[in-house]
Each structure stands twice: as C-alpha cells, then as structure tokens.
Here is the input.
Amino acid sequence: MSGGAARTVRAGRHTVEVHRPDKVLFPTGEGGAGGDGGAKEEYTKGDLVDYYRAVAPFMLPHLRGRPLMLERHPDGVDGPRFMQKNTPEHYPDWISRVEVGKEGGTVCHTVCDDTATLLYLADQAALTLHRWLSRAGQVNRPDRMVFDLDPAGDDFEAVREAARLLGELLDELELPSALMTTGSRGLHVVVPLSVSQEYDDVREFARDVAEVLAAAHSDRLTTAARKKDRGERLYLDIQRNAYAQTAVAPFTVRARPGAPVATPISWDQLDDPALHARRWTIADAVDQARTRPWAGSMSRARALGPARRRLNALRG
Here is the structure.
C-alpha cells in the first residue's frame, strides 16, 4: 500500500510535505479508547497531522524551549518503534535544537517551538512526544514536577482515589497542581515550579511527598520501584523528576490502539464516571483542549522552600 500521494501543508512561514498521508498508523480493531471494549477507529498519518495541527495552539505552550525525545513508529503502532534523542542531520534548518550534556558527551535534542515543527514530526511518524521538565538555557532547573499514578492493573478507581489523596496533600503544602490523563493507564499530577531549584532537590522533594502519602495509605499506595514488591498497590512514580528524564507531553498521542491522547483535565472532571486514562483520542481531544482545563494552573509556579518546611512539619 503506497499511502497515497504526498500532501503539502502550510504552517506559518513554512511548508511541510506530508509523505504517504493515507498510510494507516492505527489499524481498526477491538478494545476502543476509554476501555469500553468496542470497535476502535482506524487513523492514518494524515489524521495524525490534522490532529496535531488543530491542537497546536493548546499544545505548543507545553513544548516550547524543551528538549524532546521522540517516540517514532514508521510502520504504525503494530510495527517496530524507536526512541530518538539526537536530531538527524536531514531535519530542516528551521527546526530548533538544543545541545545538552550527558555522561561522556552531548546530545542535540529537537525542540518544538512552532506548528510547522509539530507537523514535520508527525510526518516522521513521531506519534508521542516526550518532553523534559526543564527548558533550554536552564536545563538543570525544572519548572514542572510530575507524579505518575501507575495502577497495578487497569483499575481506574484506584487512580482516582490516589489523585484525590495526592491533591489534598499538595493543597496542604500550598502547592498548585493539575491533572492529566496519560493515554495509557493512569494520571499525571503536575506541579508548576519556579526555576529556583535543581533536579536533585525536586526529585528528593517528590520522593518525600510520595513516601509520606504511601506511609499513610500503605494498603493502597507504594513507592516500591520493583513490580514484585508492589502487589496490587498503586505505584507513586516520581522517577521523571531527574535530569535527562522525560514525561509525555500534554496533548500528545500515545502509541496504543485507538490513538488515545494524554489529555489535561480539571480537578472537577476527576469525578466524571466516564473518565479513564484513555478517555480522549485524536477524534475528540481538541474539544477537551478548548475547555482550557489548566487555565491559571501553570501560571502559579512556586518555589519548594516553603512547601519543604510544611512537609517537614507533617513528618514530625
């Protein structure tokens, strides 16, 4: 199957050529989004490009200036995948890049600063964009802290409960927070930070928060990194809060059946009985984006010093 003739898309000052737009990336099958077990839609590369073009105004603020790791599936979700950190030489000059240090050298990451770049990456079958929690220029000072609520199975009620408990604790620490479905099984709880602390401090703080919560609800929550030590408890994963680690970007598509999307939600939506980690797909995530569920949340960045003192007081 050829995937059809190439198509050109204008985005700002640049024109992006979409190769094989009819190539199927998400085949039709069973077990649709939302975990309802119904038939799922077939989506092509052209559908992926159209989605990213529509969601770009809402997604780009969460991408600009951030090193990316690209999850590429050239033959669709049923084919092989590879994770791309270094930017290939053939990428257009107008695509931003940032060179960051690693052990023994550097990595030149792609940065998505505009719609044209987002569409170019979609043409490269970069289904999922994994972003750093810091930006170019201050790569060791994150402006996001992420808690990944990872259930033992597909029990979303356990995820809801953990999100409520974590949200209450963060409120007690006077830290603003926002929720996002992962498009997989759980939720991310995202805390906006000022860039006054380095990764090591953020990770230590996140670990201490998770341990306080897990100790108070040891029958339901755990910080055990090994699956064999978790049992049926939900894992409070804080591992993304480290230099060169990434988290899935808001509004990115996940490489799963039905093309689910990692979607920001409001805290009120946590009680929606229809909510699930795969609730939104490329067919309807833009509608959710237009409700601006994070309005005001990400502009309330905090330093961790006062929260650390409150957490220490709670720990006695």
Summary: The longest strand covers residues 96-102. Residues 30-39 have pLDDT under 50 and may be disordered.
